[in-house]
Amino acid sequence: xxxxxxxxxxxxxxxxxxxxxxxxxxxxxxxxxxxxxxxxxxxxxxxxxxxxxxxxxxxxxxxxxxxxxxxxxxxxxxxxxxxxxxxxxxxxxxxxxxxxxxxxxxxxxxxxxxxxxxxxxxxxxxxxxxxxxxxxxxxxxxxxxxxxxxxxxxxxxxxxxxxxxxxxxxxxxxxxxxxxxxxxxxxxxxxxxxxxxxxxxxxxxxxxxxxxxxxxxxxxxxxxxxxxxxxxxxxxxxxxxxxxxxxxxxxxxxxxxxxxxxxxxxxxxxxxxxxxxxxxxxxxxxxxxxxxxxxxxxxxxxxxxxxxxxxxxxxxxxxxxxxxxxxxxxxxxxxxxxxxxxxxxxxxxxxxxxxxxxxxxxxxxxxxxxxxxxxxxxxxxxxxxxxxxx
Length: 390
Ligand SMILES: C[S@@+](CC[C@H](N)C(=O)[O-])C[C@H]1O[C@@H](n2cnc3c(N)ncnc32)[C@H](O)[C@@H]1O
Hints:
Elements: E1 12-14, E2 28-35, E3 50-57, H1 66-88, E4 100-103, E5 106-109, H2 118-128, H3 131-137, H4 143-150, E6 157-159, E7 165-167, H5 170-178, H6 180-203, E8 212-216, H7 222-231, E9 236-241, H8 244-256, E10 262-267, H9 273-285, E11 290-295, H10 310-318, E12 321-332, H11 339-345, H12 356-365, E13 373-378, E14 383-389
Parallel strand pairs: 3-13, 8-9, 8-11, 9-10, 11-12
Antiparallel strand pairs: 1-10, 2-3, 4-5, 6-7, 12-14, 13-14
Helix pairs in contact: 1-2, 1-11, 6-7, 9-10
This protein binds S-adenosylmethionine.
């Protein structure tokens, strides 16, 4: 039974218009090297089943001549240094606070700049000289902003927060291609696609037809679509997110990025336990728990500073997974390069950075056997990605 057959009024079933129009560009896994957990600074008592360092060939960095790559990297490092020095001097702080705001009963991403260091931001924007990048910054932290990072050539213009359009220039494309955060967001998507491709047959039917897949905090769902496309499967996917705009964008994007499965959407607050319990019940009456869950780019929004218990949240998601199913999730690393670039210069809202041990301790506290976890660390050093079999 698919989500579409479910007698569940709160889920919107949508049809995807065009199939198989070609996969969105995705990084390629060049090597994946198994290492001892101690090599990544971990405590053996918290060691996952396996740890791999992954080399990913980014599809966009190599489009730029070496001198442009170096020019941009020098600028980003300088902006990060400036923001760090100013933070050390007490001129700004990484201030925990919600990235989303409730108005008219709707929770939407905050769009005005209220995080970060305005001086370091202005320096970076001025040196880059891009109106498109300035308009893009105002989209943060909405899922829409991530699309430009996923494919810097994907759009001719940035649709800004007021609905106006700003033509994408080369400088913005260079920044979206070369920024360490963008590289990390693309490498985590490539790793997820690789994991899904290797697990899809094991957890589902051949071709993935009818494979029930839940995309948690889906945003535009691009990584989930890319993974399904790369795995060559056509799953039955339920997208959940709080942001109506993101769900709408996901539906429009699905066909054009080659997603060939069935799609349903449900607007829900995943951090509210009662909403997740309701989802769990709905899954049970609509064909059973899911066999695949993707949950990227959301774990950083949990923790005491953000008022969300990461253990309880993970448990609520894990309960939606059927035995034998597979969960892919991720976490930004505490030792990531250029941390003040993200929160200071680009003014991304506060995110909780974690070490592998902190991440593994949460997984274990959620009652998940750590031996079932495969931890993957792309060489860019921004995220770690966990694939967990139930
Ligand atoms: C950084 S985006 C990640 C999107 C996508 N998973 C990806 O990797 O591209 C975070 C998403 O989490 C959603 N989100 C944040 N808080 C949420 C909540 N309480 N309930 C449901 N979705 C939430 C946002 O709307 C946003 O689309």
